[in-house]
């Protein structure tokens, strides 16, 4: 396919999907490390500090690979999306610069103190470093979300006579209501991811009979946090995010549900295949009126279908958007169910001895990664065909002088490098899990 725009989009989608496998764990672990160290300070029990020490090492490996995989994306703003950068740099340059400050200065500095400074710092000072790491990583995440939120729901800008976007209201841009909802939903998802990783490691140790005290702590902490944050991910943040899409991007909502005709008492499609050519869902299983209620708070609310919008405003890949949305929602439900069962078994004192559940917890850790990938696919496929929703089309943002062959060649290079990084990452993480936590307590 000799279409440079297709290859630009494919390369950026591939690199950002691969990259985000790592930040979502670091941001979630940053919160969990704070929880573990806070419990250690409160109770004086060494097991919490031992657990925090182990997960700080995992955080460090994950952070390093995340930084390496994030660099190609920064370059793509100039190599693949030069027109987008030229047109919108006066706005998004602010948030991207602030993200870099927090990620590369605040976050990395305090990570160094956490990894190498425990013996030099007092327990409270080391906890302060963990707290600063959490704040830095989550602020870094916020500024990335602000950038994306401007692309979804542009505010605080003006367009010059030359067609360039300029920032006119910094606080409207930073406090974009879309960013608040998207950020809350995203950060809760990072804690869910980290909780599933926590329980997976604990389940592995329990099944192998290794580090029993740490296995119990990982399992208990993971299922409790995982259940709480999985529920919050669905409601209220998921619910509010859906209502915002219905209000500001109704054509995206119609595509997410494969809805072609408008009308009240709109059904929610549970199962089915979108048939865009014929404008219908094949083999559907629907729940009457639920979509109307979820989108607008009333069972009788009218929900517009795709046929009410000009064809050139439809998302460019309705099938991918539809399936990504249903994968996200389906897996989100499964995550709640798994962690809910884990909480019940933990309450009964049977979690670490129920081998079938330990196998489920050990093997389920990819689920939140798949769900978050699908969630971001929903956001980005739903925004198409726009780079800045309603203002700048994707076709207007690509670099005009970069041809398909160059993008294909560099994509293959990225793929090769990422394969090497994946093996190195898995080796380092596997080695840490095999070594287990290092205790500084007298019992070690």
**Radius of gyration using CA atoms only:** 23 Å
**What does the largest sheet look like?**
2 strands, antiparallel
Q: Regions with pLDDT < 50 over 5+ consecutive residues?
A: none
Q: Tell me, what's the shape?
A: globular
Content-based structural category: mainly alpha
Order of helices and strands: HHHHHEEHHHHEEHHHHEEH
Mean of residue pLDDT values: 94
Strand content: 5-15%
Number of strands: 6
Short description:
The chain is mainly alpha-helical and 444 residues long.
Give the helices and strands, then pairings.
Elements: H1 4-20, H2 23-43, H3 46-79, H4 82-116, H5 123-152, E1 157-159, E2 165-167, H6 170-174, H7 177-208, H8 212-248, H9 250-256, E3 268-275, E4 280-287, H10 290-296, H11 318-347, H12 355-363, H13 366-383, E5 386-388, E6 392-393, H14 404-435
Antiparallel strand pairs: 1-2, 3-4, 5-6
Helix pairs in contact: 1-3, 1-14, 2-3, 2-5, 2-7, 3-4, 3-8, 3-14, 4-5, 5-7, 7-8, 7-12, 7-13, 8-9, 8-11, 9-13, 11-13
Describe the structure.
45% of the residues are buried. The strands form 3 sheets. Strands 1-2 form a two-stranded antiparallel sheet. It contains 14 helices and 6 strands. The protein has a domain at 217-388. The chain has helices spanning 4-20, 23-43, 46-79, 82-116, 123-152, 170-174, 177-208, 212-248, 250-256, 290-296, 318-347, 355-363, 366-383, 404-435, and strands at 157-159, 165-167, 268-275, 280-287, 386-388, 392-393. The protein is mainly α.
